[in-house]
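User: Could you walk me through two proteins back to back? I'd like the raw sequence and the structure tokens for each, with a short line separating them so I can tell where one ends and the next begins.

Assistant: Of course. Protein one, sequence then structure:
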Amino acid sequence: MTKKEYRIEVVTESALSTFFLGSAKMPTRKIEETMNRFGLQGWEVVFQVIEKRRMLLFWNREAMVITFSRELKD
């Protein structure tokens, strides 16, 4: 039976854009760089979800939670 290890990365939209504009778009370049960086290390994306997180008192910003996995090396 193969064993796996997991890693979770959270990529959030810019706080300044959220503060000044009320909302911002997800940073696709940052998401892509994160996925490519871990992909080169043998990690695979197994799950991802976008959640809203509270920022200060009145603002919310989105965050992408990415779950990676890879086989454990003996």
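----
Protein two, same layout:
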Amino acid sequence: MTKNLRMTRTITPDRPAAAPEAPPPDRGLRRRLRHWAAAAPSYAWLTAAGLTLFAVVELALVPGSAITAFGVVVCTASLALRATWPAVGFLTVGAALLSFATDGNMAYATIAGSLIGCFTLGRHRVQHPAILVLAGSLAALTVNLVHIDRWARDGSPGLPALQGTDRFSLGLYAETLVLTVMILGAVSTGDAVRAREETRHTRAAAQSRLLEMERRQAAEAERAAIARELHDMIAHSVSVIAVRAESATYTTPDLSPPARDAFQEIAGTARSSMAELRRLLGVLRTGDDTSRAPLTAPQPSLAGLDELLGQHRTVGGTAELRISGEQVPLPSSWELSAYRIVQEALTNTRRHAPGAHSVVELHYGPRLLSVRVSDDGPGPDPSGSTGRAGHGLVGMAERASLLGGALTTGRGPGGGFLVEAELPW
């Protein structure tokens, strides 16, 4: 931590802009239709508009009954909603069959519209394809029976008068066969397109999972490499410090009691650092195939602040702890972050203001923990020179930001240096 800062700096997490309020739900039929129209892709509207225009021209050239005209227009115009409401295909096919049953001649626009409607039902699998084909076949048979009844009652040009037994002639049911084949082809094509898209999406999802797995394995390998480097570079040196400090109390018999206590304190601090380092290496080695499980230890919490301040006093500093408000149990992440902020602030005090008196204050407010660490050292440099910037301030700010809080650092009201964090929960 750099002590020579000119002014107070506040680091707060980026907060997303407030989302606009959602409009109230629309329950009117007219507004729902308007929503469907806005959400429908342009190709659905273009198809519906083109076929409807073609149907109007066809009806003008080959006039039909009012029911026929209504069925043709409904068959083509309903295609505009097929992308947002696939079940409209039932209306499209029904209107086409009604027009054919009424007039006896199927317009070209009706043929195209009904095929697109069957394709839509199969493409979105509104029902199982077999059910769709069966329902279409029964509807086609019904239309065919209506035509046969009309031929028997009114007669038909080119066909002889039908007798009672002639109604069962297979030649009269050619319409059913043709319509069933058309429905089967359109529904099967839509279902095949749906299956192909599902296969493509499944393949893309599998590829994404594979890439994610490869990235995770690469990250684990990198963490394992970092753990090995930390172990080789730091763990050996810290262990040597612990052993040398411990052995000095036995190999040097003429040590004074204060010096002996100092060596014991150095050894204890080194052992504590080794435990923290083992825990960190265990985290970094996640997924690494190690022959031994890393040693584990409980995470530091605010309950260990007395011990932390005791360690600070043993190296020449003075410190006191003040706690206000109603103490409540906090989540482990908040406990750990608050502990690390206090630890880093005291470390910076020893580095930049040796011998200064530090005050650690914890205030438990409503859904808020305030952490305040101040000292009576020289404080930031009035000249404004910041010196060499370290990672202490950045680390404390990141810890506060991850919890949705804020960190303030700079000159205290009465001089010295101040670190203040607000951690809401």
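The first helix runs from residue 29 to 39.

Let me know if you want the two compared in more detail.
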